[in-house]
């Protein structure tokens, strides 16, 4: 309710008040400090003459100056090649099958892609006798220690469905009344 009242007073006679403000004369600006008027000083003939005048003494000194520029010899730092690989990394094609469009095509040896990791974890979970750590390490060019760590610490999710009888048993259970 308060907003409506203030809106009425705010919008009352808006056009007349606006035209009154527009028709007022603009206030005169404050006088500027005389050092701020450098543009008027630049118009004076003495300053223009001083700027355009060539000094013969400075010109002769400038002609005597000769600059010769040479690049310093390039120094090779010792141990600078530590960060650069001495040979290019060996790459291998990924083993993705029908999921080929989802992931990268080439991976460095000793590494696996995300889709490959999920595939090998799922294969090991479903058939641990066939997909042993040694076979996975040989198949994907990985170190055996890393494969053991991967199989130990990463487990894919499993979807579990409860039978309908169990659902009924859970829903038919009455909660205990606290007395």
Automatic annotation (TrEMBL):
Cellular component, GO, one term: mitochondrion
Bias (Basic and acidic residues) ranges: 17-27
InterPro entries (alphabetical): NDUFAF4 (IPR009622)
Pfam families in the cross-refs: UPF0240
Coiled-coil stretches: none
GO biological-process terms attached to the record: mitochondrial respiratory chain complex I assembly
Superkingdom of source: Eukaryota
Spans annotated as Disordered: 17-42
Record family assignment: Belongs to the NDUFAF4 family.
UniProt subunit comment: Binds calmodulin. Interacts with NDUFAF3.
Protein name, as recorded: NADH dehydrogenase [ubiquinone] 1 alpha subcomplex assembly factor 4
Organism: Catharus fuscescens (Veery)
Lineage, highest ranks first: Eukaryota, Metazoa, Chordata, Craniata, Vertebrata
């Amino acid at each position: 309710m308060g907003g409506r009242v203030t809106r009425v007073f705010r919008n009352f006679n808006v056009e007349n008040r606006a035209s009154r403000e527009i028709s007022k004369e603009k206030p005169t600006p404050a006088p500027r400090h005389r050092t701020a008027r450098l543009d008027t000083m630049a118009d004076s003939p003495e300053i223009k003459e001083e700027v355009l005048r060539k000094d013969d003494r400075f010109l002769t000194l400038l002609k005597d100056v000769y600059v010769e520029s040479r690049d310093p010899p390039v120094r090779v730092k010792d141990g600078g090649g530590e960060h650069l690989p001495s040979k290019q990394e060996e790459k291998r094609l990924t083993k993705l099958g029908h999921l080929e469009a989802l992931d990268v095509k080439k991976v460095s040896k000793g590494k696996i892609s995300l889709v490959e990791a999920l595939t090998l974890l799922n294969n090991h979970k479903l058939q641990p006798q066939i997909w042993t750590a040694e076979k996975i390490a040989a198949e994907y060019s990985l170190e055996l220690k890393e494969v053991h760590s991967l199989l130990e610490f990463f487990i894919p999710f499993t979807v579990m469905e409860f039978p309908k009888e169990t659902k009924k048993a859970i829903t038919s259970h009455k909660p205990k009344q606290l007395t």
